[in-house]
Amino acid sequence: MAVRDSSYLPFMKMHGLGNDFVVVDERGITSRVDSAVAVAIADRHRGVGFDQLAVLSDTPDADVRLVFWNSDGSQSAACGNATRCIARHVMDETGATELTLQTARGILRAKDAGNGLTAVNMGQPQLDWQNIPLARAMDTLELPIAGAPTATGMGNPHCTFFVDDAEAVDLAINGAELEHHPLYPERTNVQFASLIGPDHLRMRVWERGVGITLASGSSSCATAVAAVRRGLTGRDVQIDLDGGTLHVSWRDDGVWMTGPTAHVFDGQWRL
């Protein structure tokens, strides 16, 4: 095996429906990614640019371990599209059709869904206020916020608004404000969704610590769960995002999300 030049950090650029990631494979080596490195790489003008950075490492408890960094240098416990991208990479690398991935959310399962699609089980949603978490006890189905959004935890907090027309929402203004709403002590991801057909939603997303993104896996899962709880859809939901379509299925064993992935290029970051 060739010795890695310690002054460079190899990475892969990947995306799921335009939700883009820098993936650093640190299996077998000491981690060199920290908050400052993540922020530098995230700069779309002076760095590489990403919505999230994911670090792969070894673990005795699963096939791989994943740690996620947001573009502002904060960490996230969950990132569904990045998990799918990495699962596809490892399956292509090993020939496996099913994997386990250790995250701060817990051990997640992924599988080859056929036709180039990858599915990941994001676990059961967190529906109690203290697990999302919210600032105080309340009904998570309809929060005391204008628009009565639904709160859901998918390893990270979510705030989902159901509106007549998601396209008409000023996401930049509303998302930035709601991310920091005092009911969410750890900030929140924000979604605006419209029902456009039976079991079919149009959704736009503002990600905590990132901003507007073309897609979000955990946000899609949270939106599907919220739609089921509010009686808007069944448990199998098609969600159209700015970057494309994901399918979400809330089953007895958790929330499964299925969609395409892409490996864009490999590179090296000079530390």
Task: Give the low-confidence spans.
Answer: none
Q: CATH H-level name of the largest domain... which superfamily?
A: Diaminopimelate Epimerase, Chain A, domain 1
Tell me, what is the CATH class of the largest domain? Alpha Beta
CATH topology term of the largest domain: Diaminopimelate Epimerase, Chain A, domain 1
Helix and strand succession?
EEHEEEHEEEEEHEEEHEEEE
Helix content: 10-25%
The CATH architecture of the largest domain is Roll
The average pLDDT is: 96
Radius of gyration: 18 Å
Question: Which quaternary structure do these chains form?
Answer: single chain
Number of strands: 17
Total DSSP helices: 4
Percentage of residues in strands: 35-45%
State the major sheet: 17 strands, mixed
Q: What structural class do you assign from the helix and strand content? A: alpha+beta
Sum up the overall morphology in one term: globular
* Count of the separate structural domains: 2
Strand and helix layout:
Blueprint: E1 8-16, E2 19-25, H1 35-42, E3 52-57, E4 64-70, E5 75-76, H2 80-94, E6 98-103, E7 106-114, E8 117-121, E9 150-153, E10 157-162, H3 171-179, E11 189-197, E12 200-207, E13 211-213, H4 217-229, E14 236-241, E15 244-251, E16 254-260, E17 262-270
Parallel strand pairs: 2-3, 4-6, 10-11, 12-14
Antiparallel strand pairs: 1-2, 1-17, 3-4, 4-5, 6-7, 7-8, 8-16, 9-10, 11-12, 12-13, 14-15, 15-16
